[in-house]
Write a structure and sequence with these properties.
It is found in: Nucleus. One of its GO terms (cellular component) is nuclear DNA-directed RNA polymerase complex. It holds the Pfam family Zn_ribbon_TFIIS. Its main location: nucleus. With 125 residues, the chain is of the alpha+beta class. It folds into 2 domains: 70 residues, no CATH class; 44 residues, N-terminal domain of TfIIb. Helix content is 25%, strand content 28%. The protein contains 2 helices and 8 strands, in the order ββββααββββ. It has a 4-stranded antiparallel β-sheet, with no helix packed on it. A hairpin with a 6-residue loop joins β3 and β4. The longest helix is centred in the middle third of the chain and has 27 residues. The protein is rod-shaped, with a radius of gyration of 29 Å. The structure holds zinc ion (2 copies).
Length: 125
């Protein structure tokens, strides 16, 4: 019984050594494995041709989409501003954020971020 290539998604792998096989260039009847010289008939690729073609641009655009969403989320976070002097540049305004500590006894911590130089510091309540 002859060996046939393993199909994973839109890719074909050599049945002898597991090397990823190149897609045929259109003129050759077989694809030869670079590692062990196994000859895979080009017909093995025929039913996955459509998938292979749409694959290259589908992936990067999905990545780009994800990056865009993350940036949007970050920009959407608006903190209240309070009159607090920055210890680094002495700018009189800072962003204010209150963080509840894990244990109730510890109270909460105020996080300040300078509006001007983005220096951050914290004050325990
Ligand atoms: Zn091989
Ligand atoms: Zn500052």
């Amino acid at each position: 019984m002859p060996l046939t290539a393993q199909k994973i998604g839109s890719l074909l792998f050599c049945p002898n050594c597991g090397t990823l096989l190149d897609t045929p260039n259109g003129n050759t009847p077989v694809v030869v494995c670079e590692q062990c010289k196994h000859e895979e008939p080009a017909s093995s690729f025929h039913d996955i041709e459509i998938v292979t073609r749409s694959h290259p641009d589908a992936f990067p655009s999905a990545l780009r989409q994800k990056r865009k969403t993350q940036t949007k989320l970050h920009e959407g976070k608006v903190l209240p501003k309070v009159a607090e002097k920055c210890p680094a540049c002495e700018y009189p305004e800072a962003f204010y954020e209150e963080k509840q500590m894990r244990s109730a006894d510890e109270g909460s911590t105020i996080l300040y971020t300078c509006v001007s130089c983005k220096h951050g510091w914290r004050v325990n309540n």
